[in-house]
Amino acid sequence: MHLHDFWFLLIAVLWIGYFFLEGFDFGIGVLTKVLAKDRKERRVLINTIGPVWDGNEVWLLSAGGATFAAFPDWYATLFSGFYLPLLLILVCLIVRGVAFEYRQKRPEERWQRNWEHAIFWCSLLPAFLWGVAFGNIVRGVPIGPDKNYTGTVLDLLNPYALLGGVVTLVLFTFHGAVFAALKTAGDIRIRARRLATVLGLATAVLALVFLIWTQVHTGNVRSLAAMIVAVVALVAALGMNRLGREGWAFALSGVTIAAAVAMLFLALFPNVMPSSTNPEWSLTAANAASSPYTLKIMTWVAVIMTPLVMAYQAWTYWVFRKRIGTQHIPDPATH
Amino acid sequence: MNLALAPETLARWQFGITTVYHFLFVPLTISLAAITAGLETAWVRTGKEKYFHATKFWGKLFLINIAMGVVTGIVQEFQFGMNWSDYSRFVGDVFGAPLAMEALIAFFFESTFIGLWIFGWDKLPKKIHCACIWIVAIGTVLSAYFILAANSWMQHPTGYTIDKSTGKAQLTDIWRVLTQNTTLTQFFHTITATFIAGGAFVVGVASYHLWKAKRRQAAGQAPGEKERKKIGAMRSSLRVGLVVTVIAGLGTAISGDTLGKVMFEQQPMKMAAAEALWETKEPAPFSVFAVGNVNKGHNTVELSIPGVLSFLAHDNFADSVPGIHDTAKAEAEKYGGEPEDYIPNIFVAFWGFRLMIGVGMTSFVAGLIGLWTTRKKRWLAPEFRTGDEEVPRLMLTKRTEMSTFFTKWSWRIGMLTMLFPIVGIAFGWIFTEMGRQPWVVYGLMKTKDAVSPGVGTGEVITSMVVFTLLYGILAVVEARLLVKYVKAGPDLDEKPPAKDPRLRLPSGGDGDGDAAESEDADKPMTFAY
């Protein structure tokens, strides 16, 4: 196995980590308007991810930074090419982060309501846009001989990629509902479970169409295997959710996300960004990679740091393992 | 093409706006993390309530600030790819490594342990809780280190070769990149500067509360128990702030001097520009200020100190320092083109350099005066000593107190200079980045060759407008929130956790809401979003 193939794998792992973790953060953000009945319930939901959302988001920065270090051309083409969607994602992540931190810092109704709108929209949009972005990466976009993106923003808005966006949005919201069922107590927990069933069924229909489309378009045997894992895990997650086995349901919705993202990466390999203009101009794991020396250094860093990060982040989840109900939300006046 | 709309100009403006803005929050993030950690350590070790209140208070201001630092930092990670794709392709092999290390090592530390710290007051044993903020503090410093290593490589590329087939920079020695003198001096200089910023901020806020308390007493209000507690917490904070400012100020001056010498050697043009030194001089004077047009090749009125620039560059008062003209000529011969292509914006470099030093050092001097005048017991006649919960008198000598007028202004200067170092740091960055022009990587790549060829002017304008508006709104929101919490002062009703939380539930319970738990299972969280 070449080092750059190994790094392709590592980048995939970082994105899987990101979508697994921030997936339910986005889902919780969307559910603040879909599931919560009032402000107190919204706060219950927000506080289930309160201590962890920031750490989850760093998986994105790591994926971005690692792409820059290991595949400079991939990083350059992707982020200069998908300029406007990325801009929108960045704006959302900025506003959303500030919204979590500042929402309860003033008692005024308007202040809190505005930040709550921000949390909803700035969770919904990135959840959708990441799917659009990955749909386009797998599908291929116009790339010239100098590795630069030659299309416009309209080229990114094709049915396949848009369907990908809808799938990630619904899948993340499902993942969020399962997470909410696992982390909350009382009435909201029951409703979260019920909503998860609906969202899970919707995900199943949409994801099946998208994954089969992907498989037909660019698939191979390995991506087919990943697709089967994703579908089985999703069905199992639905079943566990029905049975009230919330821990299992969450683990399985996580496996669904991991397998679906893995499928996209497997369908992509050995390309990293196929060119729809001329296959010879595609960016591949080989021609977009850094030198073996840089990859070797980065391998050491990643192999040491990633398990360590996973360990202490897991510990964080253990510290905050207690369920949250409306009774745990302090009065706003105490701040 | 209209120069004002050249892609390079737009991309540079955008980078300047987003980066300077991001760095307004970085200094307080780095320094307040450590100061809060120090105060919490004091609380854990002594159990004194004033340290608990101080920890909570500065921690709250720290969190309001870091929220902005974190979210604006996300843009930094991606805008190299967005606006500077040719740069990213050219340097990625070298530059990407420290950036990825920053994310994997530093950002994860910061972001994970900050969550534990914010929400962990009633969940974690005191000592572990305190360790969390220390890890955050270490994370912020590590983050600064890696990004400064990357920036230093742009100032002085090292540990690389140019690949013959691709024409791109290729890393050959990561150790050189991480430990070259540019990296180490820039790191030391930046970190100490951030601590002046934190120190001055703490001094300013503490001055505000102490001065108000003093005025209330002068108006005849006897301080109640709460007031005395507040004074206690603020007085300790004031001393911490002053000590930090003075030590960091010394460190900044020393590291600045070293960095200057490194720069004279590695980027002579930047330093000649910093001095608007047009002609080579032997010995070279240090220009205190210049009137007229420093940009036009001559200065009409100038106040300068003979020989000092030679000293700054070479540690003696006689050596020759090359001027702008000679340096530009040398660069043109080496890299091709006309000499004027190699002259950065002298006005910005000259004044940026002066403002950095002037504004930053004002806080240092203020700190020094404050440290002396607010000293306790020793060196004070007994009748002038003040207790831990009293506003300190400003003492010039053993028994001479400052006059009312100077006392008033001393407290006010403490407040007014609160944000000076942050401004100084911003000017420092503007100076060092603009002084490197026309290069983006010194001697290897020019800024105009670094922009994204595929990104249209419309897209860059869109993103620039969006970021500027968004950042403007957030600045107002953040500033007003900060002012609100600064004015409110520490929450003195808040009590430290009565018993030290234990990490494991007695039952070893799994925290499932169904299980019978101890009686405080339904207790509200001490902190919630």
From TrEMBL, chain A:
Pfam families: Cyt_bd_oxida_II. It is found in: Cell membrane. The chain crosses the membrane at residues 6-36, 82-99, 119-140, 160-182, 194-215, 221-240, 247-269, 297-320. It is a multi-pass membrane protein. Its main location: membrane. Keywords: Cell membrane, Electron transport, Heme, Iron, Membrane, Metal-binding, Transmembrane, Transmembrane helix, Transport. Belongs to the cytochrome ubiquinol oxidase subunit 2 family. This is Cytochrome C oxidase assembly protein.
